[in-house]
Amino acid sequence: MTQLNEKSPVITGGATGTGPAATQQGKDAPTAVLIGVTGGLGHALARLLAAEGFRLVLAARREYDAAALTGRNDGSAIYQSADVTDPASLEKLASAAFEHLGRIDAVVNLAGISPRKPIEDYPTADVDALMAVNVKGPIFVTQAFLPGLRKQAGGGVIVHLGGAMDGRVALPFMSAYAATRGALASYVQGANRELAGTNVVLSFFGPVPSNTESESPYFDMWRKMGVALCEPNVVAREILATIRKRRQAHVMGGGLLKMLTLANAVSPSIADAIGLRKFGKLIKQHSPR
Ligand SMILES: NC(=O)c1ccc[n+]([C@@H]2O[C@H](COP(=O)([O-])OP(=O)(O)OC[C@H]3O[C@@H](n4cnc5c(N)ncnc54)[C@H](OP(=O)(O)O)[C@@H]3O)[C@@H](O)[C@H]2O)c1
Questions:
Q1: Is 112 in the pocket of ligand 1 (CB under 6 A)?
Q2: Ligand 1 proximity of 61 Cβ (cutoff 6 Å)
Q3: Which UniProt keywords are present, listed alphabetically (predicted)?
Q4: Which of 60, 61, 106, 287 has its CA 20 to 30 A from that of 271?
């Protein structure tokens, strides 16, 4: 495991890789910063972007080895620990990343937590952590990287991962969690209106429920709802498409989640009638008191 000193980033070694990353190490290679990269989706995204020739700065709270995350020891990635609840650590990360990469095409913030409980059972500690990581985190990440992205030619994109739908669809038995995803959707919308006319875009990315360790307690629930689980490498490809297209919002969904998202945007009572009320009963079974 390697932790970087912000003044002198260290390129970590480990696994060996071949392919575009091995040959596009010059100034023209695309670049990205991935925060919350040690989880199931982050790991898949690090591997994909490294294989696509990106130079990367990777981060999460724990210490980790860049090569273990990308599967390459070709110098395509460095790792620095950072905490999205701590603006000072994000400032250090941003400054190390701009120094190491020169320019940053994309920042992807995958840091997030999702405790799911009945309304009365959310302990204060969970509520505080949800607000700190899922709401303040994206705000602090944006504030840390925005000045540098504004200055560089061509701007850049900051992708924040939200929940499985568009942030406005709030499922029962996860109300405090749902509140944080709604807050993120509003933050991204407001920031994009403010950034209109610049080359910087924020993106709200809603991954479909995926085959990751953190989601595993809910696999049975999703199956009973008829929502198919997605492999993390498929989600990673959609995040890459979102970076390339600079989408302001992208909800992966499957047919069912997309339909509920659309219905809920038109009228929450229509969404209730076509499925969300039924979902509530299933979710309750997976949220014992
Ligand atoms: N997997 C799914 O099915 C699914 C579906 C919808 C939405 N999402 C969302 O997508 C994101 C990624 O999902 P995932 O499955 O990869 O989650 P995960 O496996 O739980 O990974 C979360 C990542 O966030 C990091 N993190 C947590 N708190 C942090 C903090 N304060 N500062 C910096 N990093 C922090 C964790 O590393 P450290 O502990 O080392 O900091 C880890 O790298 C999450 O926001 C999740 O809620 C996932």
A1: yes
A2: yes
A3: Oxidoreductase
A4: 287
Pocket test for ligand 1, best of 1, 2, 34, 41 (most atoms within 8 A of CB): 41
Q: Do residues 214 and 39 make contact, with C-beta atoms less than 8 angstroms apart?
A: yes
What are the tens digits of pLDDT across the range 168-190? 999 999 999 999 999 999 999 99
The pLDDT tens digits for 103-148 are 999 999 999 999 999 999 999 999 999 999 999 999 999 999 999 9
Residue partners of 3: CB distance under 8 A and separation at least 6:
63, 79, 80, 81
- Indicate the DSSP class of residue 210: B
Number of separate domains in the chain: 1
Residues 6+ apart with CB under 8 A from 121: 289
Domain harbouring 99, CATH code: 3.40.50.720
Domain membership flag for residue 119? yes
Per-residue pLDDT, 88:
98
Nearest CA to ligand 1 atom 1: 210
Domain extent at residue 232: 20-254
**pLDDT of 24:** 52
215 lines ligand 1 (CB under 6 A): yes
Q: What confidence score (pLDDT) does residue 18 get? A: 38
Q: What is the Cα–Cα distance from 118 to 68, expressed in whole angstroms?
A: 38
Is residue 51 predicted with pLDDT exceeding 70? yes
Asked whether 38 lines ligand 1 (CB < 6 A), one says yes
Q: Does some domain include residue 24?
A: yes
Token pair in block for residue 103: 């320019």
